[in-house]
Amino acid sequence: MRLLKRNDNGELTVTSDLVDDDIIPRYAILSHTWGEDADEVTYADLKRDAGKTKPGYKKIHYCEKQARQDDLQYFWIDTCCIDKANKAELSQAIRSMFRWFRNAARCYVYLSDVSDSLHEDKEETYSWESQFRESRWFTRGWTLQELLASSSVEFYSREWMKLGDKATLAQVIHKTTGISAESVAWKALVSIRHRRTFATERTPAN
Question: pTM to 2 decimals?
């Protein structure tokens, strides 16, 4: 597992591969939907100090800034912490994903298709909620795993304004996914039947 960190010179750096869970520092983790491949910042980009002009760099900046506010020096994003050119590493990462999300101190969900621009308008209180329920994030095959593995899951709009966490939004998430609010909030287990139903209705792609 590699982690991202901003060094003293302000440069974004990637750690070496941390194999032993005991030596992995506390970290935040980002759950998100991918854009076009050319728009996402990759591991190769970071190794050559590139990718800063790509659209995907914005969510790296958001994640790092939030992690610092939460007193976390390290954070993880799949697009640039995994060397996808290395098939063995990619396979290992896929098998480790649940554990990495479970062990994260914070999980931030970035919803690039949800805007909270009308959030403070009392007449439009639920404008972002309808977008939230229709977000592409809920169509991903990885969503259930990331939602349930992490004890702390916070949702952010494309402007990186906090919409709530999985406890405060449990009922909305229940209406969207069919998973009980109790399970979403870590108060009950998700049945195998619900897991299978959720998986068959989603796409495996990010």
Answer: 0.86
